[in-house]
Design goal:
Blueprint: H1 3-11, H2 15-36, H3 40-56, H4 67-85, H5 107-111, H6 115-123, H7 127-138, H8 143-150, H9 154-185
Length: about 190
Amino acid sequence: MKEQQLIDGCRQGESWARKELYEIYAPLMMSVCMRYVNNRETARDLLQDGFIKVFTKFGEYAGKGALGAWMRRVFVTTALEYLRTTDALKLSVNIDDAAIQSMQMDESALDRLSTEELMRCVAQLPDGYRTVFNMYAIEGFSHKEIAQILGVSEITSRTQFIRARNALQKSVLSLIDKDHVRQSRT
């Protein structure tokens, strides 16, 4: 089926089109939800809420740009709204922390990690760190946009990203060290 037929069907409220859209995009949008909340049940709730928004706001999709990108934006917004209502985004930062120096990492060590291991490390970040990291590194928002969306300063956004990156580096180094110990024993 052509994507345009699917779009037209969704705009007209056709059940078959909504079902097809859900089946095509649910796995991808679930992964978006899981990146923002580290709880499968909450992510499923966000998935349902996001699809409700997609279906009720389908008229707002202008057809410019990819449908999947528009839907991703709806799901990111849904996840951020949830985090905002649960106070998970209360970010407190000392200005002095903005000067945190990042650790240097051997890039070949990163090549030994799987995507799943790296995503588990991201999932273990505190809510505020994970949210800013996802928005900046994965979704491509600027720090200015993140600050506006989350209602924080740009410095806070940058600092949270640096802290997230440093925490991720420590987690990754820990995984690499465990792997190195495991390999040296065999």
